[in-house]
Amino acid sequence: MSAKPGSAPGSAPDPRADTDAQMTSHAEAHPDRLASAHWPSSLQLIGSKGLGGAERWFQRFCEALAERQAPAAIGLRAGGELDRLRGQQGLDARLPCHRLPFRTVWDPLSRLAVERLVRRVKPQIVQTYMGRATRLTRLSRRPGLGLARPVHLTRLGGYYDLSPYRHADAWIGNTRQLCDWMLQQGLPARRVHQIYNFVDPPQPLPAAELAQRRRQLGVHADEQLLLCMGRFVTVKGQRYLLDALARLPAELGGRRWRLLLLGEGPLRQRLQRQARELGIDSRILWLGWQPEPAPYLQLADLVVFPSLETETLGNVILEAWAWRRPLVTAAFRGAREITHHGKDAWCVPCEDAPALAEGIRLLLREPALAKALVEQGAQRVEQTFSRTVIMQRYLELYTDLTDG
Question: Which of 123, 138, 241, 320 has its CA 20 to 30 A from that of 44?
Fold first, then answer.
């Protein structure tokens, strides 16, 4: 595997004191550092209808390519959520954006549309995301007169059935464990590449705007806020968080707590019923899916990530670190790979509500510990998970793939 992983009681004071003003120091000092580098041309393809972690990553990655003036184009599903958002967020003004059918995984018209787009754009690399776009991308030997066949690179962010991915030329996994698993499934080691996700530098709201957002949510200034983000599906483990919260007193460190719960999904009604039965529903704000969670990260006093063992990486960890927020996380396999318990995060066993409750209680009552975790987490982002670091890895990979 050609991986180069990152060195892979009373009222308590706010552990975030003086950290909001520091956030901007975590922006990259030279965001155009790679702009002058020669990036091979690429076409980025995704066929998703809705929004989730993969789609947020796709947006961030394409924005980073545009920022670096890389010759890149986008192909996405016509009528999907990314299609709806591209104009609002201005991405289509920065990179050429092409709308494709991507109706089903076997749609011959979509496959033909992809082939035609590749011939027209003539990229050196076609990078696909998720099974639909990958399955429908079948590159001909000569997409344009006199041009070599593009390299088909596909990115995996989970332990998926590999049958829609095996025909690609190279594969990216976003954790070392995922790449090891890909090798165990028979993919050739020389063509499996490990690159972590990056997290964007925080862009804090002005204090007045943040206070207004807090009033809109109906949250008092003296209430401390827990934040949990993720789709309402089993692997995200929200049921254990609700059980944990039911074990906590109404006040911790002399302040009442509330939970900001960001997400949507098939388990929403079940989770809401559980919260009512536990008697904590009035403490929870169900905020739905938020394409831009930054304001809630800025509002949060603590981030909680209760995912189960099968979670692959967990971008929430990186976002908590970037926003300098103390983090309680379940020790699923991705968290075990990138976190250090008691140094940059407080890690508890998966599916263990009592341990999760104790972790929350500890960090809200021990601001010195919370601050120490925050400082180490911020360093981890700068050293291993910054946009600069990860985009350099992509530049190296793109160059290697197209040079030979």
Answer: 320
